[in-house]
Amino acid sequence: MVALLKDNNDVGKYLEISFVYHDRDEDEGSKLMANFYLEDHLEIGLKFRWTNQVLKLFVDLLKQFPIEKYKGLFSHYEKHLEMRWESQPHSGNYNLTFDLLTEDEDQFSISVSKEHIHDFGLALELLMQNAPTSEE
Predict the structure, then answer these.
(1) What are 83-90's contacts with CB under 8 Å, separation 24+?
(2) In which residue ranges of the chain is pLDDT below 70?
(3) What's residue 78's pLDDT?
(4) How far apart, in whole angstroms, are the C-alpha atoms of residue 95 and residue 111?
């Protein structure tokens, strides 16, 4: 299962996140996969680990998006993936830019509505609750 966030302007452009595992101990973390697609072809794939603290903050941000205290940037001490956003008042969408903080320093942007971001957060939370507890 994956949580999917599709670009409102480009049908073949989307982000999917899945869990490799999720250790439910609040002091532990998760291993995730983020895949970025362009024209329905995988452009960038990233396997990364986040503590449950960072993961919870990210899911809460998505479910309540936008949260003012972040000032357009979800950044944290685990340097794997960050998200910036800008409002697009003419369309009512938000341009989300994901920075993959790897050696290649790739970026991927999509344009989505606030409602789709909320739904993505809920889907990610559900995936987290049902994820395997260890890497199989």
Answers:
(1) 83/58
(2) 102-105, 136
(3) 75
(4) 4
Residue with tokens 């970026």, as numbered in its chain: 107
Q: Which residue is associated with the tokens 């990233």?
A: 46
CA–CA dist 83, 25 (Å, integer): 25
**Please, which residues have CB within 8 angstroms of residue 34's CB and are 6 or more apart in sequence?**
15, 16, 17, 44, 45, 46, 48, 81, 98, 100
Determine contact, residues 115/66, Cβ cutoff 8 Å: no
Q: Which of 37, 34, 33, 35 is nearest to 10 (CA)?
A: 37
| pLDDT given at position 77 | 80
CB 35 within 8 A of CB 13: no
Q: Residue 18's beta-bridge partner residues?
A: 33
